């Protein structure tokens, strides 16, 4: 194997993936009731297409896109619309949502199959992806068809599928690559076709040798697709870091991957693209890692979008006695939950439960002692120490001059801070007070 | 839906942290100074325990009383006041009267650290300001050096000059004669059987402590290496009497407060630059000023003033040396 690809700086947190990395993906039980937020993506919320009392089937549209950067949402079960109201979501906001009660029949609308999908045109593929409501499934939930429609002056020559899964604990992408490598690979090919790109890459951190092996053997017949082993280092899976590691291109400050002719898609997204284009299946379920020492039986589950976290937790044996923190997503960038009655959405990659033993109180912190550890680890080459002091003292404009808006809140600085300063909070505070 | 009313903690990401803390770092630095402290006890006897202990006690008490009287949170358990006291003690001659450690610690903790806002906000290294104050106020007491003899209990011990003092007054040849030959001179400097401040004489003990700090990644090579390297280079070029490039860098590296200063004082997080590139500038500056004072100044030793002067420059260096920004846009592309 050649030298492993990587980026500069970053951190080495405990990965704790062994809790769930050996667990095959199992289908979650048909939920009794689902909550489908009309906004699960970046962009305009979907426009409501149903009313209370309506009977819906699995796969039926219940919200249609209301703009270019928007996405439809579909019902993931068959049943009856019983409520349309604001509901808490994992990101902490209240979002207008459709509540559907199951009729237990799980009836599906007819999906349009396309066995000869590689003969479709780019526009046909993009339309199918849009209609399926596919968004980036790594967490950011940006509508995929928009990402596949770059402006003319930004030609794309490379597609990267992100299999780094650098967030500790999470194993959803890992399991997909091990169990469904062909489908993931076909998803990549469809994305390449939609962009008219010849070069495809899959980047996987070295701690998933079985996934690297599975993807390499799946891609053995395709000379234009390369599988890369990446150094085990957080945040290897951040778009800009991944592009740097694999292509050695540096996305310019404030720029996007398309500025260096690259489009990055997540493993789950590639899989969903394949299912949508080949089988006409909308994005109504996804792989969720339910893990942490605070959960009785860690699992990787195929969960229907809209299933409540409490429902999923119950199917994993419930919480242990010392459980103290429930996180939607990974431990570095995920959101802590105050209630388990929030739905799994298209962007939910994991549900992580931490116990008192792993919990680090963050309410007490100290003055910055300028040790420089944060500067050593910041993948964006910022001076987090200075930024946090400026934000703390209210010098927001000055913070901007220290490239505040390059920060994508990976949390590496906070991870290493010996004064336990809430670095990400400081960055968010400063960003909220000034214009980019 | 969930019926159990479990209380969940909600806080901002990241939800996991590494195990380092300020207290852990500070106490480890204290531990790293233990070999040098043991050597000081070996050479200077109970006086070392008395002077260093008094420094530590008054440093910790100063911080405690200051915070208590201003109704601030007491932070003495973080080990930083202890460290300031310990470092001050190691920077004092063995035979100083009791009020010297007490006043020095007060100046270090209250004036240099607490009045500037406490740990993290001080501009100058507290222990060094404490020592500078003492040196300028009681120059006689602060330069009364003694032979390192373990039986030594205080007042009747023989006074002598430090190696750097001898070098300054008598020149290199006579200086070496004092120790027999060059090899035994180096050996004395390395082990620490010379006159000097309590904790500064034994280079080897300080290096053992520094190795611990490197191993724990609490310090990096940038400051100590650039500091020592610039001292060595300048000593080699300008340190000889017979002309350029005839100096003896090893004598300059091993004597005075250089080892203590380069590994334990110049590397003080709060008062050195944060950016590694800037730390190299900082180290070179420390080395240059040290040698300027040693070779041309009125004092035989310049490490203390060198570090204090460079402390002033640390904020300026940090403002102008920026880390390499990811995706930096080249200057010409930036629209004005």
Largest sheet of chain A: 6 strands, mixed
Note poorly predicted spans of chain B: none
Rg of chain B, Å, rounded: 22 Å
Oligomerization state: heterodimer
Mean pLDDT of chain A: 94
The largest pleated sheet of chain B is described as: 2 strands, antiparallel
Textual characterization of the structure:
The complex is a heterodimer of chains A (436) and B (336). Chain A is α/β, with parallel strands linked by helices and 436 residues long. Chain A has helices at residues 122-131, 144-147, 172-179, 181-195, 209-218, 239-247, 267-279, 309-315, 373-377, 384-393, 396-401, 412-416, 423-433, and strands at residues 25-27, 33-37, 47-48, 55-56, 61-64, 73-74, 79-88, 94-102, 158-163, 199-205, 225-230, 262-266, 285-291, 299-304, 323-328, 335-336, 350-355. Chain A folds into 3 domains: 27-111 and 282-355, Ubiquitin-like (UB roll), CATH 3.10.20.600; 113-279, NADH-ubiquinone oxidoreductase 51kDa subunit (Rossmann fold, 3-Layer(aba) Sandwich); 373-433, no CATH class. In chain A, strand 15 and strand 16 form a beta hairpin. The model of chain A has no long low-confidence stretch (mean pLDDT 94). Chain B is mostly helical. Chain B has 15 helices and 2 strands. Chain B has helices spanning 22-32, 34-44, 46-69, 80-90, 99-113, 126-137, 139-142, 163-179, 182-191, 203-215, 222-238, 249-254, 258-265, 276-296, 303-320; strands spanning 145-146, 159-160. In chain B, helix 1 runs parallel beside helix 4 (80-90), helix 6 (126-137) packs across helix 15 (303-320) and helix 8 (163-179) crosses helix 9. The relative contact order of chain B is 0.11. The chains are: A alpha/beta (436), B mainly alpha (336). At the A-B interface, helix 8, strand 15, strand 16, helix 9 and helix 12 of A face helix 1 of B.
């Amino acid at each position: 194997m050649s030298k492993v690809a990587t980026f500069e700086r970053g951190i080495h947190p405990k990965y704790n993936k062994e809790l769930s990395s050996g667990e095959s993906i199992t289908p979650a039980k048909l939920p009794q009731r689902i909550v489908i937020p009309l906004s699960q993506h970046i962009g305009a919320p979907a426009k409501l297409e149903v009313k209370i009392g309506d009977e819906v089937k699995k796969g039926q549209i219940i919200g249609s896109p209301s703009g270019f950067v928007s996405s439809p949402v579909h019902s993931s079960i068959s049943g009856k619309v019983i409520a349309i109201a604001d509901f808490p979501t994992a990101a902490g906001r209240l979002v207008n949502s459709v509540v559907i009660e199951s009729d237990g029949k799980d009836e599906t609308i007819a999906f349009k199959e396309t066995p000869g999908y590689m003969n479709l045109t780019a526009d046909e593929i993009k339309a199918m992806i849009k209609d399926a409501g596919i968004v980036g499934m790594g967490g950011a939930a940006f509508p995929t068809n928009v990402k596949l429609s770059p402006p003319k002056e930004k030609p794309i020559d490379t597609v990267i599928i992100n299999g780094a899964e650098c967030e500790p604990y999470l194993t959803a992408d890992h399991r997909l690559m091990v169990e469904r490598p062909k489908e993931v690979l076909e998803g990549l090919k469809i994305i390449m076709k939609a962009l008219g790109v010849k070069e495809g890459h899959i980047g996987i951190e070295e701690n998933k040798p079985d996934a690297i092996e599975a993807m390499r053997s799946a891609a053995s017949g395709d000379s234009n697709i390369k599988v890369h082993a990446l150094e085990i280092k957080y945040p290897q899976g951040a778009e800009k870091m991944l592009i740097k590691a694999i292509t050695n291109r540096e996305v310019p400050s404030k720029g996007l991957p398309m500025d260096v002719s690259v489009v990055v898609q997540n493993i789950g997204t590639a899989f969903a693209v394949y299912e949508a284009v080949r089988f006409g299946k909308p994005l109504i379920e996804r792989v969720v890692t339910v893990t942490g020492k605070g959960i009785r039986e860690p699992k990787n589950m195929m969960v229907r979008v809209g299933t409540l976290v409490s429902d999923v937790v119950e199917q994993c044996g419930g919480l242990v006695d010392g459980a103290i923190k429930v996180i939607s997503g990974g431990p570095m960038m995920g959101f802590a939950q105050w209630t388990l009655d929030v739905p799994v959405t298209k962007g939910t990659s994991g549900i992580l439960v931490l116990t008192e033993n792993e919990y680090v109180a963050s309410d007490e912190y100290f003055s910055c002692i300028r040790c420089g550890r944060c500067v050593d680890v910041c993948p964006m080459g910022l001076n987090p120490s200075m930024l946090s002091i400026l934000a703390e003292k209210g010098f927001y404009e000055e913070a901007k001059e220290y490239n505040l808006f390059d920060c994508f809140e990976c949390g590496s600085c906070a991870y290493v801070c010996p004064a336990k300063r809430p670095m990400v909070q400081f960055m968010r505070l400063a960003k909220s007070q000034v214009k980019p | 839906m969930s019926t159990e009313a479990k209380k969940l903690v909600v806080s901002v990401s990241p939800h996991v942290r590494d195990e380092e803390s300020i207290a852990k770092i500070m106490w480890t630095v204290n531990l790293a100074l233990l070999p040098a402290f043991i050597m000081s006890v070996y050479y200077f006897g109970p006086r070392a325990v008395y002077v260093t202990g008094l420094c530590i006690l008054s440093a910790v008490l100063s911080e405690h009383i200051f915070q208590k009287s201003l109704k601030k949170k007491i932070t003495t358990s973080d080990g930083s006041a202890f460290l300031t006291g310990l470092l001050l003690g190691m920077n004092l001659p063995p035979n100083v009267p009791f009020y010297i450690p007490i006043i020095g610690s007060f100046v270090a903790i209250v004036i240099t650290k607490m009045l500037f806002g406490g740990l993290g906000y001080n501009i100058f290294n507290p222990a060094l300001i404490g020592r500078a104050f003492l040196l300028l106020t009681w120059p006689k007491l602060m330069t009364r050096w003694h032979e390192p003899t373990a039986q030594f209990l205080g007042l009747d011990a023989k006074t002598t000059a430090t190696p750097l003092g001898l070098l300054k007054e008598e020149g290199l040849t006579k200086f070496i004669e004092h120790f027999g030959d060059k090899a035994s001179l180096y050996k004395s400097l390395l082990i620490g059987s010379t006159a000097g401040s309590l904790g500064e004489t034994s280079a080897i003990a300080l290096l053992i402590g520094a190795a611990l700090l490197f191993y724990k990644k609490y310090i990096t090579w940038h400051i100590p290496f650039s500091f020592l390297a610039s001292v060595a280079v300048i000593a080699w070029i300008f340190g000889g009497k017979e002309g350029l490039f005839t100096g003896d860098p090893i004598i300059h590296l091993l004597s005075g407060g250089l080892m203590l200063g380069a590994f334990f004082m110049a590397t003080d997080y709060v008062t050195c630059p944060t950016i590694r590139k800037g730390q190299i500038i900082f180290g070179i500056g420390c080395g240059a000023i040290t040698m300027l004072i040693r070779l041309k100044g009125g004092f035989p030793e310049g490490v203390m003033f060198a570090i204090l002067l460079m402390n002033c420059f640390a904020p300026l260096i940090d403002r102008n040396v920026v880390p390499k920004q990811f995706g930096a846009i080249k200057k010409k592309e930036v629209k004005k």
